[in-house]
Design a protein that fits this description.
Chain lengths: 313, 313
């Protein structure tokens, strides 16, 4: 078990952790208040280390080490960008569900205090966003999950959600999360709705995060201007809102204070939040609340339906 | 097929874990920039527009060690296409930028590679006559400061750059490193060479005290995302998108300055081979006019920024 994921000949051809569950024919999700969409925001509050150890599968600083430019750009997010983002969200009464490098609890307690004051959820995004899961042993992965639980407990939060640092999980990562009591994972991008995962032990659901509605891929990979980011967000929202009349959707906007907290982008974020808030029948939960609602009211129903499907499980 | 995963080795989670420390280096402490007043420009100025005019020479034999900075020759030898296009900036483009500033009676900081000065004395005559503030920007764009240099070699690079400028009677107080790259020793070596401020770290919007290990140096605020290099050169923004982004940033920063009572700085970093092109220069001119027309905005250079700084702590 321990070394399985390192061996090429043992590579499976799919994750084996969810069955194909097509949109057509699904039971309709029933959201609180009859909402047609759950809209949630996941601020990634991360720390990228000054001189991290080099993971042989992904270099933390491909340009040069140390990388003053990239380190300081990211540090900007914690010093300045976070304040801007928190202020715009609080002004509109939208809480965040924080994808947290849990060491931020140690380095920047002011940020954690502010999140707690605002009623935000904290979930784990690993220890640092420069300690990737690629190539870690399963025992090391488990240590990070346990560390996350203990660290969040120190600031009064339970570890319910998970996003692997830089999205570098092995297949076994999801098993470990379920075994350690994590309630939902954001590592999988296969659906617009929460979905039960089929694991060897324990229960876990995927909740829709987004690698598309995510300021960093938008700005850094797709080189979108601020105007294009705003237009894409509105288009995504409009379509999912319309579709949500048939079967409610979950829309996540994943953000990074060092990207969206820049002075040339922050007002576009505020404009998008105003746009969303101008719509009726939108539910504004945290990730934890999505998971609670789903387990309590939808999980058994959807699982029963999944059991009726033909094809590979 | 994706690459096989290599194990990280037994020390991956135990090698330097500096979570007990405030920052994971000794250069500066945490600071909440938005919480207190730091800048008072006087004269009704709330937003200091800091024009940074980059005069860069990219040697044709730039090695790419340890990385190729944005704009460097990178095609098969001899990359005369890139070399001469960058050189255009020092023959033609820079005069458009200088004229745009002169026509409006505005002062800028020239981010000057020392080898531009040593190679082009005629240009230097015109630059010195213009009276702009001069920031020492290393030797040239191939002379990257990085950890792989010996301390003696890096010290010699700084000394040579300052000696070339001294030959023109210039004794800059401020420094900018080519490619926004520093080694962990650069701040200390700059301090020892008599430099008292640097504009390489982009983690703040007001100046702060930076402990080099060899005395303090002032970290001047800089926002790399707002540079023409990053926005137009790397992210492929169209000119109108670049102009819109700068103006959005200016409006936001000005509003925050008025709200908080502390001044803000908008760095406007323009590069002679990018913004000095005939089809782009009107965009720069429009920006200067629009910024100059904003009530509460004023143009500043390094001496004014330092004089306006009420606290570095």
């Amino acid at each position: 078990m321990q070394e399985t994921s390192f061996l090429d000949e043992n590579r499976p051809r799919d994750t084996g952790q969810y069955r194909h569950a097509p949109l057509r024919g699904r039971p309709r999700l029933e959201m609180p208040g009859g909402a047609r969409m759950a809209f949630w925001i996941a601020p990634n509050i991360e720390h990228y280390e000054w001189m991290p150890p080099v993971n042989p599968n992904r270099h933390p600083n491909p340009r040069v080490m140390p990388d003053v430019m990239n380190y300081s750009m990211r540090d900007y997010g914690n010093r300045i960008g976070f304040r801007r983002i928190a202020e715009e969200m609080a002004r509109r009464d939208i809480r965040g569900s924080v994808s947290l490098s849990v060491t931020v609890v140690d380095h920047f307690p002011e940020i954690i205090a502010r999140c707690n004051d605002l009623g935000w959820e904290l979930f784990s995004h690993g220890i640092y966003n420069t300690r990737y899961f690629y190539g870690m042993t399963l025992e090391e992965q488990r240590r990070v999950v346990i560390d996350s639980r203990e660290t969040l407990a120190r600031v009064g939060q339970s570890l319910d959600g998970w996003l692997t640092p830089a999205i570098t999980p092995s297949l076994e990562t999801q098993e470990i999360l379920a075994q350690e009591g994590v309630r939902y994972t954001l590592d999988y991008f296969h659906d617009d709705q929460p979905m039960p995962l089929s694991l060897k032990t324990g229960r876990l659901i995927s909740v829709p995060y987004s690698i598309e509605m995510n300021d960093t891929p938008m700005a850094a990979w797709h080189l979108m201007s601020g105007e294009e980011i705003l237009a894409s967000l509105k288009a995504q929202f409009d379509r999912m809102y319309a579709e949500g009349a048939q079967n409610p959707r979950v829309m996540c906007f994943a953000i990074h204070p060092f990207v969206l907290g820049q002075p040339h982008r922050i007002d576009l974020f505020a404009e998008f939040l105003d746009y969303v808030k101008a719509h009726a029948d939108v539910w504004y939960p945290t990730g934890r609340e999505i998971a609670e609602w789903y387990y309590e009211t939808q999980y058994d129903r959807v699982s029963a339906w999944l059991g009726t499907l033909e094809g590979e499980a | 097929m994706s690459a096989p995963i290599r194990p990280t080795g037994p020390d991956y989670l135990v090698t330097p874990m500096r979570r007990a420390a405030r920052m994971d280096h000794g250069f500066y402490d945490w600071r909440d920039t938005h919480g207190a007043a730091h800048l008072e420009f006087g004269g009704g100025v709330k937003l200091g527009i800091w024009v940074q005019l980059a005069a860069e020479w990219f040697p044709m034999d730039t090695t790419g060690q340890p990385f190729l900075p944005l704009g460097a020759p990178h095609r098969p030898w001899p990359d005369s296409q890139v070399y001469t296009q960058r050189d255009y900036g020092l023959r033609i483009g820079i005069y458009r930028l200088l004229d745009a500033l002169a026509a409006r009676g505005l002062e800028a900081s020239l981010f000057l590679n020392a080898r531009v000065a040593s190679r082009y004395p005629e240009l230097m005559r015109h630059v010195l006559a213009s009276g702009h503030d001069i920031v020492a920007a290393g030797l040239d764009m191939g002379a990257i400061h990085h950890e792989g240099l010996s301390e003696a070699d890096e010290r010699a690079m700084i000394a040579e750059a300052l000696e070339i400028l001294a030959g023109y009677g210039i004794a800059p107080s401020a420094w900018h490193s080519p490619g926004w790259s520093q080694s962990s020793r650069t701040p200390a070596l700059l301090s020892q060479a008599g430099i008292t401020a640097m504009a390489d770290w982009c983690n703040d919007e007001v100046p702060y005290d930076f402990a080099t290990g060899q005395g303090s140096i002032v970290a001047l605020p800089n926002l790399i995302e707002l540079t023409d290099k990053e926005m137009i050169g790397r992210s492929k923004a169209r000119l109108h998108e670049y102009e819109a982004a700068i103006l959005r940033a200016a409006r936001r920063l000005l509003a925050e300055a008025e709200q908080s009572g502390s001044g803000r700085i908008l760095p406007l970093h323009v590069t002679s081979w990018l913004m000095g092109q005939p089809y782009r220069i009107a965009g720069f001119e429009r920006l200067l006019d629009a910024l100059a027309a904003m009530p509460g905005a004023g143009f500043v250079t390094v001496p004014q920024i330092r004089a306006a700084t009420t606290t570095l702590a």
